[in-house]
Amino acid sequence: MFVDQIKIYARAGHGGKGAIAFHREAYIPKGGPSGGNGGRGGNVILEADHDLNNLIAQFFQSKLLAQDGKGGGGKGCDGLAGKDLIIKVPCGTLVWKLPVEPKLEGEEDSEADEDRPVLRASSRQRPIIRHASGVAAMEVDLSKESDEDNMKVDPVKGELVADLTENGQQFILCKGGRGGLGNRNFATAARQTPRFAQPGEDGTNEGEYFFELRIVAEVGLVGYPNAGKSTLLTAISHARPKIAPYPFTTLHPQIGILEYPDFHRLTVCDVPGLIEGAHQDVGLGHAFLRHIKRCKVLAVLVDMAGTDNRAPWDDYKKLMKELELYDPTLLDKPRLIVANKMDEAVAEENLKQFKKKIRKLTILPISAAFDQGVDKFKNVIREAVAEAETEKE
Length: 393
Known about the structure:
It is a single chain. Helix content is 16%, strand content 23%. By secondary structure, the protein is α/β, with parallel strands linked by helices. The protein has two domains: 1-214, Spo0b-associated Gtp-binding Protein, Chain: A (Distorted Sandwich), CATH 2.70.210; 219-392, 3-Layer(aba) Sandwich (Rossmann fold), CATH 3.40.50.300. A six-stranded mixed β-sheet has the order 3-1-11-5-9-8, with no helix packed on it. Strands 13-14-12-15-16-17 form a six-stranded mixed β-sheet, with helices on both faces. The longest helix has 19 residues, at 374-392. It starts with a strand and ends with a helix.
């Protein structure tokens, strides 16, 4: 099962309460206050891991609850701190803070909602991103960070609070509450026997979050259904997606690692087939299109044989239109037109017509099923990715 979107509830641990105690032992009948402090609550921490490729773990664990801090004890004993909850997510995960729906005046919770966690109001804190070593924690103001979305608030998803792209990158989603002070901290010359202590504080940023995965890959394979994207991915990598002679054989993105003789590697993403109206989420278009937003190079596969009785040049124009309507910045990415199924008799004539109608673009003829032109394809996309990285720097 492939999961790339999930809603979760997260809550940091509450701080332990401070103790009210007085020192009592032999020959000291009236010792001073000795109540210990409560331990801090545990944090909910997200960690990016390149060994994961989807959010299926959060599908089965949709409530992320960190451990509460222990209360303080007598004789000055402080409570134990709550254990941090570290959740690993795939690289490319975006975290959105879902807006809290306002309750209507006079509206009461139904009996069915009694077991649901209560959202506690807390002061908004700047998110903290740190490396797995935990040595250097760095605060990040996301409003100043450059992001390809150019949009930090979505009317449905809420506010974007984190974008985890590097392996080992950590993000404190919910910060644990501070433990309360014991009564020994409140003793003064005028008040030598305080009989009160602080309660523990609640954790911050508690609430519902929306996790969205956008696969991080250098090359994205884009095309109509049944264009041969899965066949090409099988030919250039060890990935083994399902291959069949009918549309929508691939139902979720597939990742393949392209290895070269000099040990250089490229990550290639096979995006399920796009159809007309994909920008309006026709055929689960949004679920597929978001995975190519991080790709450095787009390889547009065109069925040059016209297997499904469509003109190849019309397919290309419609694909470009769908990409532009979904996100105009996708057309700014370097792209390569891959003319597939050149082993068919009609493909040569269609390729000539295609070059007349679509000009000034690099066209690479291949036949993925018979490994024709695959080696050249590998070299071309490697050069394209290298150029894209150079321009970005």
